[in-house]
Write a structure and sequence with these properties.
The chain is built from 14 helices and no strands. It has 309 residues and is mainly alpha-helical.
Length: 309
Amino acid sequence: MKATIDQTNESGNKPKKRKKGKHNASGYLFVAPMMIGSIIIIFYPIVASFVLSLTDWNLITGFDGANFIGLSNFVTLFQDSIFLRGLRNNLILLTVVPIGLYLSLVLAVIINKYVFGKDAFKVIYFMPYISSTVAVALIFRVLFHPSDGPINQFLLSVGFENVPGWIASTTWSLPSVMIIIIWTQIGLQLVLYLAALQNIPQELYEAAEVDGASAFYKFRKITVPLVTPVTFLLLIQGLVNSFKVFDLIKVLTDGGPANSTNIPVLYLYQQGFEELRTGYASSIAVILFLILVIITYLQWIGQKKWVNY
């Protein structure tokens, strides 16, 4: 009797297993293009960078000329004054993220509440974000010209004597880059904040007004907490993008003057494709990868304390 029941169960389970196997095969086929693309474009370069960072390989000698040198590239890297200065510059560049987010939120609140024709302002502020970075850099090279630029000409005309040297000055070159980054990123941040503001229930503001809350109190206690999911998204995107500002700096200053605007990603390019020190450049890529992993992990842990979903 027991044998008969087991045979019946086995015969009933077989069609289910075959059906489940077909579903699994269909699922694997659907995700296969993405997985293959991710392996080729993302995972393989990451693994290759880790391996090459332990060698002295360069593009001319080919793989036969690669010699294993252990952690020598990393030891040299942390004694390299240009890399260390670039790292410091990159940390300073990170400050554009909170500054840009604060300006975007304030502008979004003003436009959302007090300005007629919001769509026009969305387009105006969004234009720099979708504009070519090379074109933006070339325009600002003209605007920030120390002697003939329109900005300094205006400052001189209104009475300023010691005008900034902008991209030609070691003091002002990095702030110039930061101003451009904030200007280009503010459009996306503004649009996302406007969308978030329109989802906040008006009853909350009305109740606060009944209790006599000031405009700043409502902004601090209602607006800021309820847009934290968007703030978190923009914070991650902004911090990651701050480590990828390559094209703007390459066209605007090429890391100068005197490496005052050099950052690790630009130094990686200079070492890998101009000096042909591919192994050394790979060690820079590994350090950048580890920094971004740590920042992302800290953000992910920290968001549980301040993001309100």
